[in-house]
Amino acid sequence: MSEATIRIAKDDGVVEIRPKNGNGFEIALLPNNSELYVPRRTCETTLPLELIRYWLDRSELAWFCDAISRHEDQTSVPGALKRQLFAYFPPEYYAGKRMLDFGCGTGASTFALARMLPQTQLVGIELDAERIETANRIKSCRGLSNVEFQCSPAGDQLPPGTRDFDFVMLSAVYEHLLPGERQTLMPLLWQAMKPGGVILVNQTPYRYSPYEAHSTGLWFINYLPDKAEHWVVRHFAGRNRNINKSRDWNVHLRGGLRGGTEKSIIRNLTGGRMRSARVLQPQQNGLRDRADFWLSCTNPRRYRSLKKAIAAFFRFSDLTWGTVPGLNLEVVIQKVAA
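The chain above was modelled as a monomer; its predicted structure follows.
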C-alpha cells in the first residue's frame, strides 16, 4: 500500500483512496464481512478528495463505488439514456425544452442528460435532502449551467411550482416506488407535464419476466402471490441479504422487486383514464418500432438469429397486447392533448 493511500474506517469495513497519476483517485472497498453484498468493489473518480470524503460520510460502504461509477462511467447510465432519447426524437427536438429527472438521487442521470442535451433545462428532483446537497456539490465541480436540483417536501409530494415540463425522465426509478406512492406520485408527474409532453421510463424490471434479474436472480417468482414470493426470496435469494432476508415485504418492494408494465404505469399516471395517454414507437435511426429498439440494444455478434425471432414475437406482442415483455421495461408515453 502506497504511503499516499488514505484509509477511512466505516462501521462495515475500510475504504482505501489512492491518488491516480495526479489526476483523480482510485477507490477500493474492503468490507469486514465477506458475505456483505458489494455490487462494485473498486472505482475511479475525478472528483476532489474533499467531496469524496463528504459523500462517503453519508453513504453505505457497500454501495459507494456503485454510486461513484454511475457518475464516472460514460457508457452505462449515459448509454441507456442516449439510446432511448434519440430513438424517439432527433437531438434538435430537445433544444429549448424542459426536462424533469424524477428520483435523481445524487444526479448521475441528470448530469448525463445535461451533457447530452446542452440546450435543454434539466431539473432533478429527489426526496433525500443529503443526496440533493451531494448533487449540488458535484454540480459545482462539473460546471454545468443547465441543471438545477430540488428537494421534495414529502414522499407523496413534488416541490411547489413543479409544472410545465416537456419531458419527465424515470431512469431506474419506477420499480423503487411502493404501490401507494405509484398511485400518488405518478398522477402528480402527469399533471406537471404539458399537453403533448412525454414521460420516459427505462431500466425498470418487467413485472412478468420469467427471470427476476433485478433483485434476486430467481426464476418464475414474478408469477407467485406476494406471500409466496416473499417466502421464496427470503429462503433462496442471494445477493443483497439486507433486503432479501427482510421480514418486511415493503423492504423488498422498495428494493425494486415487482417492477412494472406499460399498462400499470399508464393506469397510475392517468388514474385509469387510459385513452389520455399514448405509447410512442421509436422511429429514429432506422428503427420501426419498440421491437426494433429492443433488438438494437442487444449484442449484435451473439445469437443474432434467435434475437431476431424474439424481436418478431415482441412485435406481435406489442401489436396484440400493447407490451414488449423483455427483461427490462423501456417505454415512452405521451400525454394526449385535450
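Residues 6-72 form one domain.
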